[in-house]
Amino acid sequence: xxxxxxxxxxxxxxxxxxxxxxxxxxxxxxxxxxxxxxxxxxxxxxxxxxxxxxxxxxxxxxxxxxxxxxxxxxxxxxxxxxxxxxxxxxxxxxxxxxxxxxxxxxxxxxxxxxxxxxxxxxxxxxxxxxxxxxxxxxxxxxxxxxxxxxxxxxxxxxxxxxxxxxxxxxxxxxxxxxxxxxxxxxxxxxxxxxxxxxxxxxxxxxxxxxxxxxxxxxxxxxxxxxxxxxxxxxxxxxxxxxxxxxx
Length: 247
Known about the structure:
Layout lengths: L2 H12 L4 H11 L10 H9 L46 H4 L6 E8 L5 E7 L5 E5 L6 H12 L9 E4 L8 H8 L2 E4 L9 H10 L14 H12 L15
Parallel strand pairs: 1-4, 4-5
Antiparallel strand pairs: 1-2, 2-3
Helix pairs in contact: 2-3, 5-6
C-alpha cells in the first residue's frame, strides 16, 4: 500500500468509514488511478495482522465493532413489543414503497440506551438518508409522538409520505401522529426486523457512537444532527458508492 493510499485509508477510517465503504469509494473516486485502489479485505488484513500491518493499530478501534478480530454478528433481541390498536400492516403499503422508486417513505425505530433513555431513528428508503430524533422525555408513546411529529414536519411535503415501524408500544399514538404530521404509519409483522432492513442496518452503524446501555437521555439534538451528517456523508454500496446526501 503506497503512502498516498495509506494516508487516504487512514483518514477515512478516522471518520468511521468501514473498509468496504472505503474500497468502494476509492474505486469511484480514483477510477483512473490503479495505485489508489485496494480491496476491503486488504484493509482488514492490514488492521488485524499487526505484525505486518501497513496501517496504525489504533485504527482498529474505529471499526464498527471496535474489535481486533472478526467475529460473526449476533441477532438483536426484539425490543419494545406491546399491543398497538388499529394498525395498518406492511402488506397494505402502496407498491411504490416496496420498490423504493418514490422518495419520502421512511423506516423508523428506537435506538435504546440505559432505561428509560433512547433515540428515535428515521431512514428514508430511497436514499438511506438518516434523521436522528432526541427523546429527552423518554420513549413512552406521547413524547415519541411529539418528537417524531416535529422532526417529520421539518421536511418538505414531498418527503412526507409514509413511515414503517415495528409493533412497539412507543407507537401507540400512531393515529394522532398521522393527523398531526400527515404521514401514514404501517406496521411490520411481529419479529420481522428485516421488513425495515435499512433502519436496522443504520441502527447497527449508530452503535459506533452510542454503545448499548449508555445513557442517551442527555444527548442534545445538535449532537444527533452531527452524527446523522457523518452517516449521510458515508458512501453506500447499495447506492453505487454514492452517499445518502448525494442521492
